[in-house]
Amino acid sequence: MRRKQFTILISILLISLMPFGCKGKQPSITYPVTEKGDVVDDYFGTKVADPYRWFEDDKSEATAKWVEAENKVTFDYLAKIPFREQIRTRLTEIYNYPRYSAPFRIGQYYFFMKNDGLQNQSVIYIQKGLDGEPRVFLDPNTLSPDGTTRAFLSGFSNDDRYAAYSRSEGGSDWTEMKVMEVETGKELEDRILWTKFGGAAWQGDGFYYSGFEKPEEGKELTAANENQKIYFHKLGTPQSEDKLIYEDPAHPRRYNNVDVTEDERYIFLTTSEGTYGNELYFKDLKAKKPEFFPLVQGFENNTYVVNNLEDKLVIITDMDAPNNKVMLVDTKNPAKENWTLLIPEKPEVMTSASVVGGKIFASYLKDASTHIYQHDLAGNQEKEIALPALGSAGGFGGKKEDTLVFYTFTSFTYPPTIYKYDIPTGASEVFRKTEVKFNPDDYEANQVFYPSKDGTKIPMFIVHKKGLVLDGKRPTLLYAYGGFNASSTPYFNVSNVILFENDGVYAMANLRGGGEYGESWHKAGMLEKKQNVFDDFIAGAEYLIREKYTSSDKLAISGASNGGLLVGACMTQRPELYKVAFPAVGVMDMLRFHKFTVGWGWAVEYGSSDNPEQFNYLYAYSPLHNIKDGVCYPATLMTTADHDDRVVPAHSFKFIATLQEKQTCKNPVLIRIDTKSGHGASNITKAIEQLTDIWSFMFYNMGLKVKY
Questions:
Q1: pLDDT tens-digit profile of 556-592?
Q2: Catalytic residue IDs
Q3: Strands 392-395 vs 404-411: parallel, antiparallel or unpaired
Q4: What is the DSSP letter of 95?
Q5: Closest CA to 137 of 186, 79, 72
């Protein structure tokens, strides 16, 4: 459609805020007057107005002035909540404890990450052996004055001499890749720009990486990212001399990534059209004429290489197995009919597999809790690794010759604990325990199953203080995600202590669209079945009210990204059901999400408004397009940030401007727009600030006092 230019007039009116009292009247809020344009799109005969299209220009002066005006309203409101500083103080106190990652071996060294407590970024450490003295390898806190530059290790050379690391600024997904010597920590001159969602796959004296072209100046955070290419970078040479390995100009909207086996014999090319389904190719570098050979073609399934055993490949696939299975592929006879079954599909979904120390470790989810099984290389199950409770475990990574692996276990009331597992003996022992500044034993977590609208049983975890009287009056936060085959499993979140200490309840629902029960569960909540996800969430809220955990006056809902879409859809479909809503960095404009950055890759999950059938169901639930006149919506605090280049802020800007325009009651509908942050807080300081405002907003709008 033809795009018009408008002169935008932002009129900031006098804001009068009455003194806050915990049981007093809500302050009177005057929102900025936001100019509306007359853009109208025609979707297959349906005219759809887009009056706030101008927000899509994130660099315009008008957008900047509007952001400033909205933040002033929001932060003036938050500043007058009487217990806001007490919550900030308590959050800062409970966040201030040491946090570690599990170590992993590179040659004679072990690497791990540690945060002393309130460091903005975790520091990467190196030590010789498990008993060596740790020293700093890379401290991201030194990379920017405000601690908003992040850094992570993105690949090691197979001779253990070099480490590639990626850094991103201000929360953006864009990364710059650099190289350091493992032994000395010296940084080399190599620089790789404009990478995203990928690492370094080393081979010999260099590495493969996936890169995009430099975006047009001024559109780095919004322009569609297309034509991802594979390059090989040789150490000591400029990026301009990198060798192009693979491109597919006929299909610009595909992700392309490579990996290399640790023996450097095989290179794998994975290509996908979105967030589900991939093609897989391999190249045998021992062949007389190495070239990529198709192992899996088409995008109907997910298939990935776990490792190689000489000239055979261990793969995990959901092909003819929605819950996944492990297969062995002879590279000399790689046709599907020649594949050998190693680990068959189970009733529970397999989430990952690794080959380490002559064993295959397979991870499963049973009702959203982790189970780990050890197999020999022929696929025979040898044992289940005993975990301390129902919860989440991850790790069991390493090299083929390793005899030790590490894994981390956590649950709602179990702070992350790192275990060392001796492969020859099968013995586990605590390697590092997390010490927190409260007693997790004071709280309990239970799992329930409730019926959704169509009768499907949906699991939900409910956490609260032991002995809490459930009288239907407890402040409750219901969280979910429900999409992209992602599983929500029990995890320790120190922020929830604020809720528990104020006699609140935390609930996490495992909605369809996620991966908790395999691909069939995922497909039951995607494309034209996306409404199932919203029905599942709404039914969870109704369950919490029916079972006397809470009431509509004490219920808040929360979700981020796809979960922000979830909250946006549910608060527009059932606004009377919740008192407070926290849609974070959400996909709110379901008709235009595919036009920005990597949004095109989500069309396999959601569909696209370019398709007439898919347009109809997208339009039916799109949060932006379902805000109605004459409705009282929940008290809403949207959160987004200026460097979110995954779900661009225009989604949230359009939604809140429309909500402010149509809100008919005194419930505040505000937006909190962070700076130098992205698809989530870019450092600890910003995380604490945002969580302070979320809890303050929730308790205040429920008319509650806090115990601090």
A1: 999 999 999 999 999 999 999 999 999 999 999 999 9
A2: 561, 679
A3: antiparallel
A4: H
A5: 186
pLDDT of residue 542: 98
Rg (CA), the chain: 26
Work out the burial of residue 588: count CB atoms within 10 Å of its CB; fewer than 13 is exposed, 13-18 middle, 19 or more buried.
Answer: buried
pLDDT tens digits for 497-527? 999 999 999 999 999 999 999 999 999 999 9
The three-state (H, E, C) secondary structure of 419-438, written as one string: EEEECCCCEEEEEEECCCCC
**d(Cα 698, Cα 504) in Å, to the nearest integer?**
11
Name which of 540, 543, 581, 517 is nearest 364 in CA terms.
Answer: 517
CA angle 614/617/619 to nearest 5° reads 100
pLDDT of residue 290: 86
The neighbour count for residue 149, using CB atoms within 10 Å, is 22
Helices (H), 428-546: 497-501, 519-523, 531-546
Contact by Cβ (8 Å): 421, 428: yes
The DSSP element (H or E) to which 77 belongs, if any, is helix 61-79
Any idea which residue has 């975890």 for tokens? 461
Reported as half-sphere exposure (CB side, CA atoms, 13 A), residue 436 has a value of 19
For 694, the enclosing helix (H) or strand (E) is helix 684-701
Distance (Å, whole) CA 458 – CA 465? 23
Tell me the three state secondary structure of residue 638.
strand
Residue pLDDT, tens place only, 11-37: 322 222 223 333 345 567 999 999 999
563: closest CA among 608, 529, 596, 514?
514
Give the architecture-level CATH label for domain 63-93+438-701: 3-Layer(aba) Sandwich (3.40)
Half-sphere exposure of 708 (CA within 13 A, CB side): 20
Strands of 293-296's sheet, edge to edge? 255-260, 266-272, 279-284, 293-296
**In this structure, what token pair is assigned to residue 307?**
């490792």
Per CATH, the number for 100-347 is 2.130.10.120
**Burial class (CB within 10 angstroms; exposed 0-12, middle 13-18, buried 19+) of 435:** exposed
Query: What is the phi/psi pair of residue 605, to 5°?
Result: -90, -45
DSSP letters, 525-560, are TSGGGTHHHHHHHHHHHHHHHHTTS--GGGEEEEEE
Please report, for the chain, the start and end positions of each structural domain, with discontinuous segments joined by +. 63-93+438-701, 100-347, 348-435
pLDDT at 25: 53
Decide if pLDDT at 183 tops 90.
yes
Task: DSSP for 36-76, please give it.
Answer: ----EEEETTEEEE-TTGGGG-TTSHHHHHHHHHHHHHHHH
Q: Tell the residue number behind the tokens 């610009």, with chain if given.
A: 252
Element (H, E) at 686: helix 684-701
Instruction: Yes or no: say if 627 and 636 are a contact pair by the CB < 8 Å rule.
Output: no
- Contact, 278 vs 605, CB < 8 A? no
* 491's tokens: 């995890």
